[in-house]
Amino acid sequence: MKGLSSAWRHEAAFRQELLLIVLLMPLAFFVGDGLNQILLLMVISWLVVIVEILNSAIEAVVDRIGSEHHELSGRAKDMGSAAVFIALMLNAIVWGALTGRNLLAWW
């Protein structure tokens, strides 16, 4: 639980993504058509938070090692950020696809 507490205190992106989760979780019940879609929307949303925590951990370790610029440190941070970006894009694609599909079917 220290990890969650630390992420909450020190990572603005983590707090923003949790706010997004609070908004999206109830919406999943309206957007999702059946249990499988609802669970997919919830899991893909939590994936963003998980990847953000891992990225924050990578950044903390790199910063702990030293403040001088090193190519490998930069690569590690860049790859962590890329993982967060991919998780966010995957989240947007799944939410967009299911929302669009279910709206068209409803119409």
How do the strands and helices of this protein lay out in sequence?
Elements: H1 2-10, H2 12-31, H3 35-65, H4 71-106
Helix pairs in contact: 2-3, 3-4
Outline of this structure?
This protein is mainly α and 107 residues long.
Q: Can you describe this structure?
A:
- The chain is about 90% helix and about 0% strand.
- With about 110 residues, it is mainly alpha-helical.
- It has a single domain, classed as Helix Hairpins.
- Helix 2 runs antiparallel to helix 3 (about 35-65) and helix 3 runs antiparallel to helix 4 (about 70-105).
- The protein has 4 helices and no strands.
- GO terms for molecular function: ATP binding; ATP-dependent diacylglycerol kinase activity; metal ion binding.
- It holds the Pfam family DAGK_prokar.
- It is a multi-pass membrane protein.
- Return the average pLDDT rounded to an integer: 94
Total of domains: 1
Helix content: over 70%
Q: Helix and strand string, N-terminal first?
A: HHHH
Number of helices: 4
Distance between the termini: 45 Å
- Describe the sheet with the most strands: none
Number of strands: 0
The name of the CATH topology is: Helix Hairpins
Report the structural category: mainly alpha
In percent, how much strand structure appears in the residues?
under 5%
Round the Cα radius of gyration to an integer and report it: 17 Å
Quick one: overall form?
Answer: elongated
What are the low-pLDDT stretches, counting only 5+ consecutive residues below 50? none
State the name of the first-level CATH class.
Answer: Mainly Alpha
Architecture (CATH level 2) name: Orthogonal Bundle
